[in-house]
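To illustrate the input format used throughout this study, we show a single complete record. The first block contains the structure-token representation of the backbone; no residue identities are included at this stage. The design step must infer an amino acid for every position from geometry alone.
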């Protein structure tokens, strides 16, 4: 299988939204981002800086069609990953459709999904994400289409257990349990103290509180001092608070202090202070190489392609993960910060989105089990994309202790600069 990656501006948009905005549903607005156009590229090779573009279409055959339903263009990166798959496999095999921009309209969502899936040649449906009304639409489809594979990706807007009864596979980023891994990574970087900055409105959000509690528990388990700090409650004041407070923390606890923050826009002032003073940054709130670190180091967020659009304007793309790894290491070398900064080596949501399509192709070709989930095959596809070890963990209900094998949470190995 050819290895590839789509890295465009929606990566940045998703990374600004997924951890902070989707988990608390607040109305805070992050800073604007730039717009660039897509360009296929390779996955990251974290131990090899060689970059080889492979934009050619894939002639791999598979029976039937795959329907991918995403948000509209510009809302999230899943749209762009879907478009990349259309370009790779062709419109005759990958059908990409969109939810209405107002995706809270349940009846409209039901109507759209049933219409989109009406083609009898469609045998796999990837819903990324499953918005309101998705479960009802799947119930209607399965009345006459028992032979379809249904994969949900990302945020689950309706009842969790209703989703698990409808989807054959649910894939999401393990934002909660990976919180413990952040602390272990901080320890590897030399941390003796772990400072957690939480945005005020996250104090009423169960996901953020659970992440904080897991970090605290892991710190206690391995003997790292945990310090919990609440920031100010608006954009400018919270950023200034971080800039003022990090030096105080380092003065008190020393340079072997690791810092994390729960809000996207806190990453830049946090990382800036850490690099200037020589402390530790184990991971951004959105778990991606595109988030926080490049902006702080003034690494260009777009690369010229040499091509022009219909208006005669030069088309640009975001740097590939390989390019970013090389540039970040160079910048951190100059600042004597190697071994103090780490992150995941690519976009986690893009990883899941790409792997879902490749898994569906294998399913259509009967190369994986038709009932249940071939976790090893799914993991292999994700590792193909990321270039690092990937972990898939079945969802466990804390209240009942029940484990659900069709809901898999993904995390991956860190890259340390």
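Output of the design step:
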């Amino acid at each position: 299988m050819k290895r590839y990656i789509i890295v465009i501006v929606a990566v940045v948009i998703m990374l600004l939204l997924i951890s902070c905005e989707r988990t608390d549903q607040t109305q805070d607005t992050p800073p604007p981002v730039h717009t660039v156009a897509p360009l296929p590229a390779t996955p990251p090779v974290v131990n090899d800086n060689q970059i080889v573009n492979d934009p050619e279409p894939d002639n791999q055959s598979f029976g039937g069609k795959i329907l991918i339903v995403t948000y509209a263009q510009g809302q999230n990166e899943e749209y762009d990953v879907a478009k990349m798959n259309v370009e790779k496999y062709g419109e005759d095999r990958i059908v990409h459709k969109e939810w209405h921009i107002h995706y809270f309209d349940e009846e409209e969502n039901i109507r759209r999904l049933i219409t989109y899936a009406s083609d009898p040649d469609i045998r796999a449906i990837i819903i990324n994400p499953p918005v309101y009304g998705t479960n009802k639409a799947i119930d209607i489809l399965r009345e006459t289409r028992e032979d379809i594979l249904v994969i949900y990706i990302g945020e689950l807007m309706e009842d969790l257990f209703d989703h698990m009864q409808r989807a054959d596979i649910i894939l999401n980023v393990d934002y909660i349990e990976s919180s413990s891994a952040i602390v272990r990574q901080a320890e590897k970087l030399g941390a003796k103290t772990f400072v957690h900055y939480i945005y005020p409105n996250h104090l009423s959000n169960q996901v953020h509180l659970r992440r904080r509690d897991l970090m605290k528990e892991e710190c206690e388990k391995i003997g790292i001092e945990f310090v919990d700090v609440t920031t100010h409650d608006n954009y400018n004041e919270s950023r200034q608070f971080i800039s003022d407070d990090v030096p105080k923390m380092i003065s008190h606890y020393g340079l072997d202090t690791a810092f994390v923050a729960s809000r996207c826009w806190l990453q830049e002032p946090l990382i800036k202070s850490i690099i200037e003073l020589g402390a530790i940054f184990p991971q951004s709130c959105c778990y991606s190489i595109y988030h926080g670190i490049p902006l702080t180091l003034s690494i260009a967020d777009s690369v010229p392609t040499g091509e022009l659009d219909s208006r005669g304007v030069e088309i640009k793309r975001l740097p590939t993960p390989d390019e970013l790894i090389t540039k970040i290491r160079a910048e951190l070398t100059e600042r004597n910060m190697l071994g103090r900064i780490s992150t995941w080596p690519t976009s986690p949501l893009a990883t899941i989105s790409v792997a879902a399509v490749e898994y569906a192709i294998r399913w259509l070709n009967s190369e994986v089990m038709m009932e249940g989930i071939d976790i090893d095959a799914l993991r292999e596809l994700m590792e193909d994309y990321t270039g690092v070890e990937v972990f898939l963990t079945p969802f466990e209900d804390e209240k009942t202790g029940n484990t659900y094998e069709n809901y898999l949470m993904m995390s991956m190995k860190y890259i340390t600069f």
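Structural context for interpreting the output: Residues 1-56 have pLDDT under 50 and may be disordered. The longest helix spans residues 235-253.
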